[in-house]
Structure formats: C-alpha cells, structure tokens
Write a structure and sequence with these properties.
Blueprint: E1 8-12, E2 16-19, H1 20-32, E3 36-41, E4 46-51, E5 54-60, E6 63-64, E7 75-78, H2 83-88, H3 92-102, E8 108-111, H4 115-121, E9 128-129, H5 136-141, E10 145-146, E11 151-154, E12 157-160, H6 166-178
Parallel strand pairs: 1-3, 1-7, 2-4, 3-6, 7-8, 8-12, 9-10
Antiparallel strand pairs: 4-5, 11-12
Helix pairs in contact: 1-6, 3-4
C-alpha cells in the first residue's frame, strides 16, 4: 500500500444518516496508509451512523462545517447513506466546503448517494461520475455524465456506486492521494 505521509483527509457527513461502512472502510484505509482522517459535520458532538435503515454506531465530530477550513485538508471524502447527503446538500457551509475541493486539484471521493452533495456545488458540468443509480438524473441535470462502473476517475474526482465497491473505491482514493 502506498504511503500518505500524514495527509489530512476530511470525511464530511451529516449528524445523522451516514452509511456506517461507507464511512469506516475508507477511513481505515486512510489510516493504514499513514493518513489522518477527520470527521466534519454541520453540528458539534457526534454523528449517528446507520446500517442501511437501522441505527448503528455514533462517531465523534472533529470539526463543524462552520469551523473547518478546506485549506487544512489534502482530500475530501463524501460517504453515502440516503439521508446523509440529502441533509448536507441543504447546509450552505457543507456545500461551500465541497465546492472549494471541486474547484481545486485536491482529491474528492464520493460513494453511493455521496455525489448528491456534489450536485449542489454546481461543479459537475462536464464531469463523468458514478453513484447509486437513483442519482443519475440529478447528476445529468447538473451537467455531469453518469456511468455505471465500480469506480470511476475523472480528474481529481473518485466515485463509486455502493458498499460492494468499497475496496476499489478506497484503493482509488489512496492512489489519488499518494500521486
């Protein structure tokens, strides 16, 4: 595995609704590769994760979307879960945080429903991405091109469809970060 040499990776989630495995698997891969993951959410305290529709673990929030500075991080990860990005896309600070990464050359990785937040940034025009299939119309309406692939790379953007794609997604994220 390539080394991330302490790269700081922002994992942005809502305070409730993130799909646990889509947060924890890439988080662990970042740590194993020598990176530093940080949890960012709209409110202080904890975020409630889910295993599909059932509540699971809670995770401590490191920064809020109000006090996190995109310049302090080397990459952004947007896990899915239906409720998670649906809430983030209505938080102007979360959208601005994601938009700053999309406008930079820093890696942005989104899986499953995670790209919903990217739709709100207005930065998908001309980008080719994958996601959970139900986001196809939203992505296309935002000017993006949707593909049904396990993992898709487009510039600084890494996207995947679902939890079954997590291994390929995490490997592509580490590859992008270590480049």
């Amino acid at each position: 595995m390539k080394s991330l040499n302490g790269a700081k990776v922002a994992f942005m989630v809502a305070n409730e609704g993130v799909e646990e495995v889509e947060l924890t698997k890439p988080w662990e891969k970042v740590k194993q590769a020598g990176g530093q993951p940080f949890l960012i959410a709209p409110q202080e305290g904890e975020t409630q994760a889910f295993n599909h529709l059932d509540k699971s673990k809670t995770f401590k929030v490191d920064y809020t979307t109000s006090n996190a500075n995109p310049e302090d991080f080397d990459a952004l990860v947007l896990p899915g879960g239906v409720a998670n990005p649906d809430q983030l896309r209505t938080d102007p600070k979360a959208v601005a945080f994601a938009k700053s990464f999309m406008a930079s050359s820093k890696p942005v990785a989104a899986i499953c429903h995670g790209p919903w937040t990217l739709v709100e940034t207005g930065e998908l025009k001309g980008k080719t991405i994958t996601s959970w299939p139900s986001l196809k119309t939203d992505i296309e309406n935002a000017g993006g091109h949707w593909v049904d692939e396990q993992v898709h790379l487009d510039g600084n953007l890494v996207t995947s469809r679902k939890p079954d794609d997590l291994e390929a997604f995490s490997e592509a994220l580490i590859e992008k970060l270590s480049a």
